[in-house]
Known about the structure:
The protein is an alpha+beta fold. It has a single domain (about 5-95), classed as HesB-like domain (Hypothetical Protein Aq_1857, Chain: A). About 15% of the residues lie in helices and about 40% in strands. It is built from two helices and nine strands, in the order E-H-E-E-E-E-H-E-E-E-E. A six-stranded mixed beta sheet has the order 4-5-2-3-9-8. Strand 6 and strand 7 form a beta hairpin. It starts with a strand and ends with a strand. The model has no long low-confidence stretch (mean pLDDT about 85).
Amino acid sequence: xxxxxxxxAKRIRTLMANQGVVEGGLRIRVKAGGCSGLSYxxxxxxxxxxxxxxxxxxxxLKIFIDPKSYPFLKGTVLDCDENMLGQSLVFKNPxxxxxxxxxxxFSV
Length: 108
């Protein structure tokens, strides 16, 4: 399961509106790279793919995760730190043994 806080959902909806995205949701995946070994990658997606895990926030915001990324993200809470420049999304990932200072990469 992936949880999305109200602050993160609000930030994601604002970003979607700024980019003219009215349908779909946020795709989150994990790829090799970054200073800690694995990196979070996210982008807008118009609709789910057949093999996606789909999670919804309390207000219906959709999060799409592919089957290869899900084991690395299971149990993650997606939050928003309004004190960071640009109100960055923050991944509170219980699977990460270490993460970089900026929070965009991690290792397991």
